[in-house]
Design a protein that fits this description.
The complex is a heterodimer of chains A (about 120) and B (about 120). With about 120 residues, chain A is an all-beta fold. Helices cover about 0% and strands about 55% of the residues of chain A. Chain A has no helices and twelve strands. The chains are: A mainly beta (about 120), B mainly beta (about 120).
């Protein structure tokens, strides 16, 4: 079984200040983890993914996330927020089953709405 | 390059009516899936397909049917619409099915907003 918890439903920052969106996961085996972004009235777009290569993952638009196994976390950060970052962000986990592979299913967090103030 | 195309963008149904949400992708992706998005609940998987002729259920399959007769198309059918099916529906595809060893990114359509009265 696997699950994802996004710890904040809403985050509000000022333009130019750092962004932190928190995500904790639960997975019986080694997970793959993703962050997706959804702008209003649009589909989701991949920001970055972790698949057991490097624990610090860099994505598009200056975002990055660090996989911390001991804390079961995959928090998303950006050093300086831009107005165009305002959107909803989803943390996603794809876990392995007992045979060492998962197949066909991803689990989405509940989403974090990021507001950026001028 | 169209990517993932969903039609219609908006739909209003009366309880008990049936309809089909269309999804087509032009990237020759093996994997296609349908999600519904409800406030505060993230996205929940309805059905998915790992290739033509192969479909399987996700978390919330009741009230929905799918088929995959071609690689490109993956329609979602509501057999008898209920108010609980009011939601935003997303179709997503990827080169291969999600696996722990390799995960190609999902490509999403722009969604279909469905209201059932």
């Amino acid at each position: 079984a696997q699950s994802v918890t996004q710890l904040d439903s809403h985050v509000s920052v000022s333009e130019g200040t750092p962004v932190l969106l928190r995500c904790n996961y639960s997975s019986s085996y080694s997970p793959s983890l993703f962050w997706y972004v959804q702008h209003p009235n649009k589909g989701l777009q991949l920001l970055l993914k972790y698949t057991s290569a490097a624990t610090l993952v860099k994505g598009i638009n200056g975002f990055e996330a660090e996989f911390k196994k001991s804390e079961t976390s995959f928090h998303l950060t950006k050093p300086s927020a831009h107005m165009s970052d305002a959107a909803e962000y989803f943390c996603v986990v794809s876990g392995a089953n007992a045979g060492g592979t998962s197949y066909g299913k991803l689990t989405f967090g509940q989403g974090t709405i990021l507001t950026v103030h001028p | 390059n169209a990517g993932v195309t969903q039609t219609p963008k908006f739909q209003v149904l009366k309880t008990g009516q049936s309809m089909t949400l269309q999804c087509a992708q032009d990237m020759n992706h093996e994997y296609m899936s349908w999600y519904r998005q409800d406030p505060g609940m993230g996205l929940r998987l309805i059905h998915y397909s790992v290739g033509a002729g192969i479909t399987d259920q996700g978390e919330v399959p009741n009230g929905y049917n799918v088929s995959r007769s071609t690689t490109e198309d993956f329609p979602l059918r509501l057999l008898s619409a209920a108010p609980s099916q009011t939601s935003v529906y997303f179709c997503a595809s990827s080169y291969s099915a999600p696996r722990s060893s390799y995960n190609s990114p999902l490509h999403f359509g722009n969604g279909t907003r469905l209201t059932v009265t």
